[in-house]
Amino acid sequence: MTACEITDIVCNVLGVPVDDVRQKTRKDRADRVVFARFAAISLCRSETSLSLTAIAKFFKLKTHATVLNSVAACNNMVETNPTFAGLFALATRLVVAPEWDRFQLTEFYPFVYSPETVQDE
User: Fold this and answer.
1) Rounded to an integer, what distance in angstroms lies between the CA atom of residue 69 and that of residue 85?
2) Share of residues in the chain with pLDDT > 90 (%)
3) How far apart are CA 2 and CA 79, in angstroms?
4) What is the three-class DSSP state of 28?
5) Residues 68, 74, 77, 78: is their CA dihedral positive or negative?
6) Nearest CA among 59, 109, 58 for reference residue 87
7) Per-domain residue ranges of the chain
8) What pTM was computed for the model?
9) Are 54 and 65 in contact (CB under 8 A)?
């Protein structure tokens, strides 16, 4: 699976436009966009063979260290925010599922997202 496909899945699950997740600027970025970015970066790190530098370039980050910080932040969010943990688990399940199974999973999980459901608790 490619970084682009992973980002599409995460954005679909969290209800965030892909362009917002890949934008370079941090100005006026909502929490849900930050959460989606953390999740996409973390899944790219764990589910692809891309280097830290390649992931940083894909997400328009300054250095590979930002990728490491994003993965750590995502892990922290999974531990402290049950709503985010559930959405991240669903995104992970969709990323690792075979393509034919991914279609069936999306039939059972309509992606209805409300920004209030994922807040930093």
Assistant:
1) 18
2) 41
3) 26
4) coil
5) negative
6) 109
7) 3-100
8) 0.80
9) no
Residue pair 54/24 in contact by the 8 Å Cβ criterion: no
Domain covering 3-100 assigned CATH 1.10.1750.10 in the classification = yes
- The alpha helices in the chain, defined as continuous H runs, are 3-14, 18-22, 31-47, 52-58, 64-80, 82-96, 99-108
Q: Cβ(17)–Cβ(11) under 8 Å?
A: yes
Share of the chain above pLDDT 70, in %: 77
Q: State pLDDT tens for residues 5-55.
A: 899 889 888 888 888 888 776 655 678 888 999 999 999 999 999 999 999
CA dist., res. 117 & res. 68, Å (int):
26
